[in-house]
Amino acid sequence: MLGLVRAKLPEVAQAIAPLMGAVCALQVTIVHAPLERFLQFLAGSVLAAAGMLFVFAGVEQGILPMGRYIGAELPRRRAVWLIVAVAAALGFVTTVAEPDVIVLGAQVASMDGSPVHGQALVYLIAAGVGMFAAAALWHIAHGRTLTLPLAVAFSLMVLLSMVAPPAFLALAYDAGSVTTGVLSGPALLALGVGLSAVLARSSGVLGGFGLLGLASTGPVILLLLIGWLQ
After folding, report:
1. What range does the domain containing 165 cover?
2. pLDDT digits (tens, 9 = 90+) for 183-202
3. Angle formed by the axes of helices 2-26 and 35-58, to 10°?
4. Are residues 99 and 54 in the same domain?
């Protein structure tokens, strides 16, 4: 485990160094924030880097292998409904725990006049991911590509964007963007790849990709639809 943490250290440093460099440059040239605030930023950046380090190590050590194992084991049960149910459940629970989704919900909850309550937003996002992840796994289990579902989903997003209220429009697209985080993304990708590898379709393990893209459209469509119906 320590070896994996050390191996991930350069990746974390490369990820956070540009942000720290940009903020430090702004501090020296333009912003000139109080010293206490700037030191808080540096301390927070170090804590964030430490958190990223352990999260990345945990994802590679546990979440990805287990996701691939679950995806490989489900076809052996010979029950498509079970595959769909597991995909929906994993999509929901991993999205509820997704840090980016929690941050978005907290930001929405702190603002007056928000069209959706913060915690309700988290559950709506998770429900959208779960439903569309289930639809994607259903297609993969039947050996079908995700071309048609993706085309339908994106077309529906465009149509609903024309009729949804502006407040829901902006919130819906941000809700879709925060679903591809450190928990839901690896878990769903590993699930799809594991399933495709066992089914051995013509596209091979590449047939498992696209699941995450389709799942991310779920919250967008769900929130736009709610906004249009209100």
Report:
1. 79-229
2. 777 778 777 777 776 665 54
3. 150
4. no
